[in-house]
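anyone seen this seq b4? input:
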Amino acid sequence: MAVPWVALAILGSTIYQASEASKARRDAERQQAAALKQQADDAAAMRTELARQTAEYAKQGASLEQQASLAREQFQAQQLQYQENKLEMEKKAKEVQAAADEERRKAAQSEASALKARTRGGRRALLSQERLTPELGVVSPELTPGMRLQ
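predicted toks r here
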């Protein structure tokens, strides 16, 4: 009868080991399922965070693009204003130069006329209003006080 007890002990031990192995397998499956669930949750959280960051970067990119566009428009407006001011200043400079040239021309003409009168005519009296024709001379019997005889 000792054999059945040994067989029963071996059988009991085998059943216990199978039960423990089954428990261990179920625990391992639960742990694996929990790990897979945790990985899936982590992946979903990562995708959500990545989508949020992508949206934030898109907003920042749009804002920077808008700022660049505004800066470009301001630069072009400044360039246009600069060109207009430059043309206006060039026009004024030409006008001032032309006025100065005209004044110099008049001054030179006046000086040349005065020099010509001094060198050719000496100090002749100016023609009076009483003198009607230069060929005939003075018509009135009296000379005006402004005229001198030479």
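The chain is about 80% helix and 0% strand. The chain has a mean pLDDT of 84. kinda curious what u guys think
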